[in-house]
Amino acid sequence: MAVHRLGGEPLRYRRARRIARILRRRCFLGIFSVSFLSLLYLAFFHPKLSFHALHHGRVNQGNTGHRSIISTLYSSDNESDVSYVSGKAEAETSRHPRAKSHKHHVPCDIEFVDSVEDLVEPENYMNFTRFSLDYIIEEEAFYQTDQSEPLFGGRQSIEERENSFYAENQTIHCGFVRGPGGYPGSGFDLDEKDKEFMATCIVVVSSCIFGSSDFLRRPTRSKIGTYSKRNVCFVMFLDELTLTKISSEGNIPNENGFIGLWRVIAVKNLPYTDMRKTGKVPKFLSHRLFPSARYSIWIDSKMRLNADPMLIIEYFLWRKKSEYAISRHYDRSCVWEEVLQNKRLNKYNHTAIDEQFLYYQSDGLIKFNECT
């Protein structure tokens, strides 16, 4: 049996409407309270907000790139503009952890003399044993008959290597060794005109780029004096691949083979497939390449010469009364650390590194104070 209330709505409908009104009032009060508190927060604390619409609007307003937009935002006086860039930077930083900071190295202070005009080469300031060396330029026969190609450094025995360290008149292996008659050359072939030029050099600044591994850095002409420009040989050794690349970049040798101060010398038939190993030839054997030179300076291809070479010679050799000077590594001074770093960077086969390192130790290499 159903019970109805005649002349009005059922009781349950009125109760539902009352509950709905109460909920609406409470919801309105909640929204109002949140809005009021938000306005108070903005009024007293005024935080920096990220207005992404501003960025998109500016992109669409003109045909400008992202770099110019960022520059405009940073230079703007509008706080919201700056806060957008700041907010984006913070977001990117949170997604990508900050990289490990690198050490910054600054050049050391060198007290060069003011000018090269009054420089005079000292007479016999070095006290060392005088002796003469001749070099093996052709192998008489291969030690192993199954090896049909000559080696650039020749095939010296262990005994010959040990004897080559004595300061006495002798004939030694020192690169540029050709095979017996009828065999091809061992590499690092140069044009005869280039050889004639190199034979006239008394003071040499040299460098090299092989395998198109770097770009050409010219000496700073404003730092090089007139005397050095006329009397010092600036020689850059390149292979054909590198010469083609730098020519495509606008560095084309003139009719005399010069690019700026560099006299470009093309090397053919590289002796090694490893370009780093080939680069050691002009670095360590400059006395073979420049037979008449009294002084030579080697510049790594990643460095630029910013001083007059005669000032360098005066400071490091003449003033210090030294026979040679070599730069110290900016970060490491221990061979043990260098071995580990070469392995980390996978510069060479690790087994080959270990074999070479053991050979150094068998020659008497020991740790010194700066090795931990």
UniProtKB/TrEMBL annotation:
The chain crosses the membrane at residues 27-45. InterPro entries: TOD1_MUCI70 (IPR006852), TOD1_MUCI70_glycTrfase_dom (IPR048354). Keywords: Membrane, Transmembrane, Transmembrane helix. Residues 133-370 form the TOD1/MUCI70 glycosyltransferase-like domain. This is Uncharacterized protein LOC109711171 isoform X2.
